[in-house]
Amino acid sequence: MPCFNMWTAPMIVLGTLSACFGGDSRDVVITSITPNKIQSSTARTLDLAIENLPELPGQLLCVFTIGETTLTTEAIKQTNGIKCTNIPSIPVGLHNITAKLSVRSDFFTTKFNFFDCNSYSSCTQCVSSDFPCDWCMNGHRCTHDTAENCRNDILITGVSRVGPSFRSGPAFCPTIIGTNTGSREILVASNSKKAVNVKVHIVSQFIAQSRFECQFNIESRVFSVNAQLRDDDVIHCDPMKFTYTSQLSNINASFAVIWGGSKPLDNPDNVHVNIYKCPDLANNCGLCLALPEKYRCGWCESSKRCEIFQQCDNGLGVWLKRDHTCPI
Ligand SMILES: *[C@@H]1O[C@H](CO)[C@@H](O)[C@H](O)[C@H]1NC(C)=O
Ligand SMILES: *[C@@H]1O[C@H](CO)[C@@H](O)[C@H](O)[C@H]1NC(C)=O
User: Fold this and answer.
1) Closest-lying ligand 2 atom to the alpha carbon of residue 184
2) Confidence of residue 27 (pLDDT cuts 50, 70, 90)
3) Which of 55, 63, 159, 306 is most deeply packed, by most CB within 10 A?
4) Ligand 2 centre from 283 Cα, in Å?
């Protein structure tokens, strides 16, 4: 086993410090570690004398791995090696801990992140990024290399790209805008059926002609119904019964409009469904009639519960609404 080079790690034992030197380390060799013992938490720096330390770009880091934990501290270049600062101390009650020490440069990591457009899963995030990333609409992916990854696709270029572009920035992303009243919240009474409608910004004929689906994630279960695009900018989800089991008076369910089988429209404003139970929002007539009108709750005389009209004796019960007076 190679003992140490810049890219493999020596074992050092903090406390009764012993290190593994030499070995199959070829060019880069640690010739000494100072101090060679670290008494409890007194020493906070570690000097590594290294032969043939290559000129590395970026910040150097000392990385201590203790069990599953990784601790990264600053490394300072010195004439004959490096100094690790803020080295971890030994937890109280332990005589020693064994840490794996590696030295690395953050340059490579930084460079990788810079080009990692792939990490963006939505068009809005992708084309708003500080990095030169573009969104392929049909491929539903973010890329820095459109020639390679986005052939014959509709392209939305990122705001960080220079030069002319046909479609640039998040305004060209296919998105859910909100309800037709402009709200980001869709209210549904639990145990009732509702056909959800939302305004969308579809952008392309290509998407407009695809199949749509609405998805609701209620208490971690996903429910899907078919949907139609009408008037160019309204998605009509098929009716669905909304229920939930928890004891809460209301819960939020996330909402998505899917096109082309698996591609969600962006939902940058988090348009979501709030499912509520009138009886749990108000347990007496006075409170029930004082609830905000948007819930459409009223006092059901037959059940003596706060209910929506349709649930009060299936719409046949005596149902008091906001402008009525509670019976004494
Ligand atoms: C390090 O600590 C372990 C237990 O925590 C102990 O078994 C071992 O003997 C110690 N090693 C030294 C060199 O003190
Ligand atoms: C539902 O979401 C809205 C908006 O994000 C938030 O204000 C509200 O507290 C949430 N309700 C619940 C029960 O989590």
Assistant:
1) 4
2) very low
3) 306
4) 21
